[in-house]
Amino acid sequence: MNLIILSMKLLEGLRRSFESATKDPLKAQRAILLQYLQRNKNTEYGRKHNFAAIRSIEEYRNAVPLNSYETLRPYVDKMTKGEANILTRDKVVFFGATSGTTNKPKLIPTTHYSERKKEELMNLWSYYISRDHPDVLDGKILAIVSPEVEGTTDSGIPFGAESGYSYRMLPKPIMNLYALPYEVFEIEDYEARHYAILRISIEQNITTIATLNPNMIVLLCRKIERWQNMIISDIEHGSLSDSLKITPAIRKAMKNRLKPNPDRARELKEIIENHGRLLPRHFWPEMKLIECWQGGMMKLYLQELDNYFGRVPKRDIGCVSTEARASIPITDETSSGVLAIQTNFYEFIPKDGPDNAARNTLVCTQLEINKEYFIVVTTAGGLYRYNIDDIIKVTGFFNKTPLIEFVQKGLGASSLAGEKLYEAHINETMTRVLQKEKVLIDFFCAVAQPSDGPRYSFLIEFSGSTPTRERAGSVLASIEEELRIQNREYDFVRNAQLLDSPVLKLLKKGSFENYRLKRIAEGAQEGQFKAPQLTNNPDFEKNFDIEMVIQLSDPPA
């Protein structure tokens, strides 16, 4: 409690400054934009677009084009090779890695300056949590992140998951509040990693859980019953099962923290005797808060969390991507957060606007409640007028500043478990699969199925005769293999067991033609009709007659 009171006192000035800024958000936005432009006016990008002469938001929009990652990739490539003063004057210390619309990963620059700006935002988020949950740190924090380093650039700069990087860089006094050592997240075998997370955390008094994806929490909860006896034995003896695939170095680092704890083991055995199984609401009875995404498709997982934890309050982490953290949730049980107007400069493109809307972006004071927009950011890390391809919805206002919530990845995109899958990935995957398998098809579509797995169903109508189950299974295996190549995040969430294996649903002959005629009868223009190659509508498959369903694990016929 004393730590909470102290932190709130230290952050009170930051809170006052932020809430004051929300009363005149356009003034705050202009200030942060000009601050970043002035800071980086002598960079290669700043000189090219004459940052030094820009004095207004309108001048900025006229001088700098809208960017995607591909338009900025040549600049980032120079930075990965060690060249300085390209997008930002500040030294790059890390690249956050994420998938784009191609199979080349996006590398997002991180500097100490951009880290400080994000830290200010995280401190604000923590302030509002502490205000509403003053006992949240009575126990330990169970934070679940991805491994920090996946590799290094040509110049030796590490790249990987920004969440892991931030976790490893925590000051030691703060790190003592966390239940897990960073080494847990470096365990390559996911079964072993999941077991280690549960074995170490169940021994402790956890009062808050923090992770982006609630699906990860659900996945761990589903595995507890299978491992509960082994977990209790390990806690009793201070061990970590030798059956786990863990390298000697990581095992040694973790074992140094473990001691026999027969009292806790006895408590857990009593829970099983009284309730039949271990459930978080029984072994973590002092849980105060779950911190995770609540928007988009995450609502399905939140319902299942209640089965394991009971009615524990939930606080959204905000609109967060590798590129930018854009909102600050300040209340529980909502995916909405206040636009982070002192951290990035934002522009917005109406989702349903005219084709030329991108040339007339809106600022935050022009947004309307219940309308949806693509969000464009200018950041402390050297991204300028960068279209993240995230769609947000305005749900209200805090003073005069919009409250926003994440709706989905851009049009023609899906993200059931963080995979950020685009139609471009599906198209390239199917092109390569058809070449490899030497088959012809009349139609295909990948359908996101959030409640069935979650997983993707591939609807395919083959040309000619219907393939055998064995032949169709080979096509499905190739789809899975190629998707992992085309999208690094898809490969990650599949390995992490956050996404189930895809299924192939063979359509009866003529199914696509019947659907096409139906859509034209409903008013679609025949010459402009285009069926989706990827859809977030799980009911889309009801438009077709399904002849056969192939599971990835089906044995050859």
Write the layout of secondary structure elements.
Layout: H1 2-21, H2 25-39, H3 44-48, H4 57-63, H5 69-80, E1 92-98, E2 106-111, H6 112-132, E3 140-143, E4 149-152, E5 158-160, H7 162-168, H8 172-175, H9 190-202, E6 206-210, H10 214-237, H11 248-255, H12 262-275, H13 280-283, E7 289-291, H14 299-309, E8 314-315, E9 327-328, E10 337-339, E11 345-350, E12 372-378, E13 386-398, E14 401-409, E15 413-414, E16 421-422, H15 423-437, E17 441-449, E18 455-462, H16 469-486, H17 488-495, E19 503-507, H18 511-521, E20 534-535, E21 546-551
Parallel strand pairs: 1-5, 3-6, 6-7, 7-8, 17-20, 18-19
Antiparallel strand pairs: 1-2, 4-5, 9-10, 10-14, 11-12, 12-13, 13-14, 15-16, 17-18, 19-21
Helix pairs in contact: 1-6, 9-10, 10-12, 10-14, 15-16, 16-17
- Compute the gyration radius: what is it? 25 Å
Proportion of β residues?
15-25%
Number of separate strands: 21
Q: Order of strands across the biggest sheet?
A: 9-10-14-13-12-11
Overall mean pLDDT stands at 92
For the report, how would you describe the main beta sheet? 6 strands, antiparallel
SS content category: alpha/beta
Shape: globular
Give a structural overview:
The protein has 557 residues and is of the alpha/beta class. It has a domain at 414-551. 39% of the residues lie in helices and 19% in strands. It has 18 helices and 21 strands. It has helices at residues 2-21, 25-39, 44-48, 57-63, 69-80, 112-132, 162-168, 172-175, 190-202, 214-237, 248-255, 262-275, 280-283, 299-309, 423-437, 469-486, 488-495, 511-521; strands at residues 92-98, 106-111, 140-143, 149-152, 158-160, 206-210, 289-291, 314-315, 327-328, 337-339, 345-350, 372-378, 386-398, 401-409, 413-414, 421-422, 441-449, 455-462, 503-507, 534-535, 546-551. The strands form 5 sheets. A 6-stranded antiparallel beta sheet has the order 9-10-14-13-12-11. A 5-stranded mixed beta sheet has the order 20-17-18-19-21, covered by helices on one side. Strands 2-1-5-4 form a 4-stranded mixed beta sheet. A hairpin with a 7-residue loop joins strand 1 and strand 2 (106-111). The N and C termini lie far apart (63 Å). The mean pLDDT is 92.
